[in-house]
Design a protein that fits this description.
14 strands; elongated; single chain; 14 helices; eight-stranded mixed β-sheet; alpha/beta; six-stranded antiparallel β-sheet
């Protein structure tokens, strides 16, 4: 009798359902999320994603479509618009930054594309480029970069550029041989699904949405107003983004960061969950991130967040089923109304229940917006007042007015990293 009791207790006390309760749910959740366009590198990321309280997002190619186009070209002095575009395209031809690509593409469309690479080329992180083009020193980037080279921006040109920035455009300022030569307007539309996806994330428990961008404050605020983002921090360098992530984590926030560029890689690695945009992301951002949004749709991220929360709930339910079954069976063994055969039968049933419960995750579908995303009305905006902060990103007090184009110095044959 003692041997029979011992064997029965030993078999009953081995919770097979508990062993598979978490893995089977994790596999089902990962599979569902992958089918909906998001690759997650570990089951631990699912648990971290389910606990996110604050979302940090880059702007360019994350909230915007990442297909910038050249708009207005304003040339100064003896240069024509075509000549200014040709010089800027030649200087930017080595860079892979989205602004550079837009300028080079516009030059090709107008038949003034550069035939050779610049003889000298230097990128300044988050600021712009300086290059030698046909024995001319061409500088393209923020106003602060021109100021660093002693180039003053005419008042009339500054006012015209500011008006374009207020409407959401990015401005690349150009100087040739130490003199201001004009500016080029770059436009980029907000992703059509962004507003609805951010609203879904808020409904799912994300309390705050912050924009961290290297772009100028006017453009950043324009996008924030359209999407109802709580706070805007503009003109940030890579280390500034990391600092924001670290400070929020120290305040007890669980942080998810979405970005795509070299400038975002360090912040993606520091955040509790880093998500890279797969349609436009750089290799380093996708390698560093915990998850990759393959098609770059923010709806995919919202679905991944919703499914991760469901996955954690299923894990908890499965563990409750497994532990509850074991507790009942052990009590039955001591009360002598559960024996080896009946105990094993109940055990197998509990294993099947755990598996079937986890399989519910495979049927979850991605929700789509009922209407296209567009400018939010005051009643739709989650945060009535947006706060924009640029004080921490420009210690020298210099103005900056284009998306960053920065990296380290590079020879003319090297491709510069794509950053923003």
């Amino acid at each position: 009798i003692a041997i029979s009791f011992a064997l029965t207790f030993l078999v009953i006390a081995c919770p097979g359902a508990l062993v598979i309760s978490v893995p089977v749910a994790a596999v089902a959740g990962l599979g569902n999320i992958a089918r909906h366009g998001v690759l997650i590198k570990s089951s631990e990321t699912i648990e971290q994603l389910a606990r996110v309280t604050t979302l940090l997002v880059d702007k360019t190619r994350t909230l915007t479509e990442g297909r910038p186009a050249v708009g207005r070209i304003e040339a100064e002095g003896s240069l024509s618009s075509s000549e200014l575009l040709a010089l800027a395209a030649a200087a930017e031809s080595v860079s892979e930054h989205h602004t550079a690509r837009a300028i080079v593409a516009a030059a090709r469309e107008q038949g003034v594309a550069p035939q050779t690479e610049p003889s000298e080329f230097e990128l300044s992180v988050g600021v712009g480029v300086s290059a030698m083009v046909d024995d001319q020193r061409v500088i393209a980037g923020r106003k602060s970069l021109l100021a660093d080279h002693g180039v003053q921006l005419p008042k009339q040109a500054g006012e015209a550029a500011a008006a374009l920035e207020a409407s959401g455009s990015t401005i690349a300022y150009i100087a040739v041989d130490g003199s201001y030569a004009g500016f080029i307007e770059i436009t980029d539309r907000v992703r059509p699904e962004a507003a609805a996806a951010l609203a879904s994330l808020r409904a799912q428990g994300v309390k705050r949405v912050l924009m961290l961008t290297g772009d100028n404050p006017h453009v950043a605020q324009h996008v924030a107003d359209e999407l109802g983002i709580d706070e805007v921090h503009a003109q940030l360098l890579p280390e500034d983004k990391v600092r924001f992530v670290t400070e929020l984590q120290q305040q007890g926030e669980r942080i998810a960061m979405i970005g795509d560029g070299v400038n975002d890689a360090a912040a993606l690695a520091t955040a509790d969950v880093g998500a890279a945009m797969g349609d436009s992301g750089t290799d380093i951002s996708m390698e560093t991130a915990d998850m990759v949004i393959l098609n770059g749709s923010l709806h995919q991220f919202a679905h991944a967040h919703r499914t991760s929360k469901a996955t954690v709930r299923i894990m908890q339910q499965n563990m409750a089923i497994a532990l509850g079954t074991v507790a009942i069976l052990i009590a039955g063994v001591f009360l002598n109304f559960v024996h080896l055969a009946s105990g094993m039968l109940v055990h197998e049933i509990s294993v099947l229940l755990v598996i079937l419960n986890a399989l519910r995750l495979t049927t979850r579908r991605q929700r789509q917006a009922a209407t296209p995303a567009g400018p939010m009305s005051p009643t739709e905006t989650t945060s009535p007042a947006h706060r924009i902060d640029t004080s921490n990103s420009n210690p020298g007090g210099k103005d900056s007015s284009t998306a960053p184009i920065g990296g380290k110095s590079s020879g003319p044959s090297e491709k510069a990293p794509s950053v923003h």
